[in-house]
Design goal:
single chain, Phosphorylase Kinase, domain 1, 3 domains, 14 helices, 15 strands, 20% strand
């Protein structure tokens, strides 16, 4: 009925439950389990992969185990057995997690990628976002809650309906029938850039017009201050001081921000435009959003202009057209001086971020990293002293 495995390194004992636990065998099951686990003080995990059924008598056995060892949890619970745990309130009393069905992404089209995961189309109706973190369940739960929050507040977004295993990683599944990203639409028809930019701005304004409560989402300004402070070791003291002051002077607003807004994260489905990749939702002044948009369309390619093509699938020039159209429609002007001033504000924040990211995380060659760091330093040294504010 049971198999046991002890991991001495983590002081974890796993009990593999098999078959059925009901009134006919619950007494024997309890006796055997208590004998094996009675004096164990480490973490106790009950693996229900092969558990076919559990009755109220079996549940009482689990409850007594939980009282004996507070760490007891149940994992890999099939749908029917999970429903029993859920209906009887066990999911509120202890940690019980479902078994996740497995899906394959072999040969699937990649339709998007962000810092935390990659998005694949696994069939005409369905996409899956595969998280890069091997222990991503908390991230998945957080993104689902953020997507629901945005949806309720009127932001058009796709909400994941299932969690799956993809090899040794986890993924969120979305139903997006025949949906195509704006990137795919733009690649297919470059002349659509202007209309796609308008639609992109419509969603962006919907996001930014959504006012939140203090503390409801992460504060993007607090994150940007960290980027600016990091630059102190790479800039002259007067430039660094002013950079930090300019970021801190940006007004504290309650606008919703997407945080990773670009043409791979906007999908069109049956004429409706929807956002995906909601795990980066934040709040703050819209200039922080534009610094991220600038990063996607221009900043990534400040040294190597093929970077934007590798990331978004469009040329550097096409990305520039889309960026300029986004500014034009969002701010309602085609005045080149005004738009250039807005771009500079976004770029200063962007390159403070890129400088920190390059020093801390970039996997590129040392020569490329050196060039990128020098570019960011020189841009900030040239533009920060001539800038009076970073907000519009």
């Amino acid at each position: 009925m049971f198999e046991y495995r002890l991991d001495k390194d983590t002081n974890t004992k796993t009990v593999f439950l098999k078959g059925r636990i009901d009134s006919s065998n619950s007494a024997q099951a309890e006796q055997e389990l208590l004998k094996e686990t009675g004096d164990f003080s480490g973490t106790l995990i009950l693996d229900a992969t092969d558990l076919e059924y559990i009755s109220s008598a079996g549940l009482r056995v689990i409850l007594r185990l939980k009282k004996q060892n507070k760490t007891t949890s149940v994992i890999n619970v099939g749908s029917e057995v999970y429903e029993i745990f859920d209906m009887t309130g066990f999911t509120e009393m202890m940690d019980i997690s479902k078994a996740y069905r497995s899906v394959s992404i072999d040969g699937c089209e990649v339709i998007g990628e962000g810092a935390n995961g990659k998005v694949y189309r696994i069939d005409p109706d369905t996409i899956v976002k595969v998280y890069k973190n091997h222990d991503a369940l908390e991230e998945i739960k957080n993104e689902r809650e953020l997507a629901r929050k945005a949806f309720v507040l009127g932001v058009p977004t796709a909400i994941p309906y299932d969690v799956v295993r993809v090899g040794d990683l986890y993924g969120s599944v979305f139903e997006l029938l025949n949906a195509k990203s704006f990137a795919k639409l733009l690649i297919a028809d470059a002349s659509a850039a202007d209309s796609l930019a308008k639609d992109s701005v419509d969603i962006l304004k919907t996001i930014h017009s959504t006012e939140l409560k203090p503390g409801e989402l992460p504060d993007k300004k607090a994150e940007a201050v960290v980027w600016a402070e990091f630059c102190r070791d790479y800039l002259p003291a007067d430039v660094a001081d002013k950079l930090v002051r300019l970021v801190k002077d940006i007004p504290d607003t309650l606008n919703m921000l997407h945080g990773d807004y670009h043409i791979k994260n906007i999908m069109r489905q049956n004429g409706e435009n929807l956002l995906i990749d909601m795990d980066t939702l934040a709040m703050g002044h819209p200039v922080f959003e534009f610094s991220g948009i600038y990063l996607a369309y221009r900043g990534f390619s400040c040294i190597d202009r093929t970077c934007v093509e590798k990331f978004l699938g469009i040329t550097y020039d096409s990305a520039g057209v889309f960026w300029n159209s986004t500014l034009k429609y969002y701010f309602g002007t085609d005045d080149p001086e005004k738009l250039a001033e807005i771009e500079k504000k976004a770029a200063i924040i962007c390159y403070a971020r890129v400088l920190r990211r390059t020093v801390r995380k970039a996997k590129e060659s040392e020569e490329y990293k050196k060039q990128l760091i020098e570019f960011c330093k020189n841009y900030l040294i040239e533009n920060v002293p001539a800038t009076d504010s970073l907000y519009f």
